[in-house]
């Protein structure tokens, strides 16, 4: 039955995946991708259909698990933010070489302008690098529709399909029309021969030309598909190539009757012939794309004519940050709008720790402990506790990539730095810190690793963390002396205790772990409300 | 019909509930909707906004262009001013007057209110007090929605239906408390 619902881009993707008959959604939380998995977790239809959707330890385990689903013939999606793709890349790139069986769609949400991220890397490069197709919907309806299409594409060409969205698609709502029937699951199957799944050099040398051959077919498909659309216009002094959310900003400014021809790109690899045709028709090509100048750079290589190409590289559009209706308007040289001057009575309001947050108490104690060390530096990591960089704490000196607090501290200790301290959250530790701690234990490195354990993945909204309840055992299991795996509750009354513990472990010449454990304020509130509701329903 | 609305506030104040009520009402009116939200880092006590666009015609952009917002609805006075460059020349500001001071350098509060008062289309209301007086101290956001119900281009009874829809799963007491806050905001703005 046809239905309509107001959905976030992320939710439209989730619903599209559920209705395409997925067996599982595999993901690690990351803004702006988190709501895809959360929608599936809360969907009665997904539950009734036994869709597996528990959070994974990291994006790599997510990617590989989805490949496992695929290898026995069924469908799965993998969801992550752009930097998560760096973690999943081994499975993704080699998974493309190996070729799936059941359909696999890897949904990656990029975050240009870095609203909640450490960079604005553009996932489209991964599709080109791994020779996979990429879908880039411009709106929520396209996102929904492209899930079923993407699975068919994945199964037909035996290739993982990448779907790329950006913040303003992921986190924007619109009405989506859908059919509420769920496609039946494919029967379990295991194709023979499956030697492309054994990427020994002897097989890989066979698999690589097969992959390149698939890519040539996908290039041809991009020429023919309705997902790449040409709209003619009367003024051929310029032709516009627009993709993703940038296409919306273009339409916002020019309406339905654009004077210039437009080539809308929704499916990659790029349709070279169609781009050449546009260049033959037009004196100049303007490229509008969210993220890095991925299309713009390739267009220069595709065109052998002297056609001028403008976009982010030429400064017609901003080189960094997300586009918006105004930057696109300026690039089109349309009349500027009358705009109020910014108010002089406005100051920035940066994010901060929640009141009562355990990270606060940890950093307060850590700052006291570090006072007696001249010019000290504390390595840290990606999570809520990165806010410890901001005043009033100013406690940390690094936030580079997931898990790095431990290995940065180890490297500094190897180089002779003392005291080498790393502060990491529990979810980040489970994601990518455990292997680093194994290195630390194996080398008997002189570091103090503080795991600020709030029993949640806090920054993304308090999702379950993979290590909850087993952080201490994990530290001991990788080889840290149990006498130097210490647990403390970060509360104002324990300040002196924590400070002393840090002093003692700094003095100890070897690896130690201090677990500072108190539940996230946000999840504690939520859990209290759930308990209250449960008690009331029992009455 | 076209209404471009910027909802502003501080993370946790409840702007997304205002957006959800308007969204429910707009669907009932068969309007097209786009609503861009902020999730993630800035929800931790930082400034947050949502671009809510309603129109009888299809909507292209998820974001509102500068100089084009018909209304700024803000749960915090300084946050209302943050989006001035987005406000259309004849646009309205509807804002709470109670400051949310969680930064050491919050500007002079009288200057903030003074600047707001100097604008031509503005509704200033202490919705925290309005909601409290209506018996729903947690309903400031819905009281603010009530205060702007005259300028949204959506019938107030449709907004009330939206409130019922949004809060239905929390029970009739919560629905009634929010309707009371909504009506109190509506009455306060009209006097």
Low-pLDDT stretches of chain A are none
User: At the fourth CATH level, what is the homologous superfamily of chain B?
Assistant: Pyruvate-ferredoxin oxidoreductase, PFOR, domain III
Determine the N-to-C terminus distance of chain B: 27 Å
Count the DSSP helices of chain B: 7
CATH topology of the largest domain in chain A: Rossmann fold
How much helix, percentage-wise, in residues of chain B? 25-40%
Write out the strand line-up for the largest beta sheet of chain B, numbering strands in chain order.
2-3-1-4-5-6
N-to-C CA distance of chain A:
39 Å
Largest interface: A-B, 48 and 47 residues
Radius of gyration of chain A: 26 Å
Structural class of chain A: alpha/beta
In the CATH hierarchy, what is the class of chain B? Alpha Beta
Quaternary organisation:
heterodimer
Estimated structural class of chain B: alpha/beta
Explain what this protein looks like in three dimensions.
- The complex is a heterodimer of chains A (539) and B (191).
- Chain A is an alpha/beta fold.
- Chain A has 3 domains: 2-224, Thiamin diphosphate (ThDP)-binding fold, Pyr/PP domains (Rossmann fold); 229-331, 3-Layer(aba) Sandwich (Rossmann fold), CATH 3.40.50.920; 358-524, Thiamin diphosphate (ThDP)-binding fold, Pyr/PP domains (Rossmann fold, 3-Layer(aba) Sandwich), CATH 3.40.50.
- Chain A is built from 19 helices and 18 strands.
- In chain A, strands 2-3-4-6-5-11 form a 6-stranded mixed beta sheet, with helices on both faces. In chain A, strands 8-10-9-12-13 form a 5-stranded mixed beta sheet, sandwiched between helices.
- In chain A, α1 (9-19) crosses α2 (34-42).
- Chain B has 191 residues and is of the alpha/beta class.
- Chain B has one domain: Pyruvate-ferredoxin Oxidoreductase, domain 3 (3-Layer(aba) Sandwich).
- Chain B is 39% helix and 23% strand.
- Chain B has helices at residues 15-28, 77-82, 109-117, 127-133, 140-147, 156-167, 172-190; strands at 2-10, 32-36, 47-55, 69-74, 87-96, 122-125.
- Chain B starts with a strand and ends with a helix.
- The chains are: A alpha/beta (539), B alpha/beta (191).
- Chains A and B meet through β1, β7, α10 and α13 of A and β2, α2 and α3 of B.
- β7 (172-179) of chain A pairs antiparallel with β2 (32-36) of chain B, so a sheet runs across the interface.
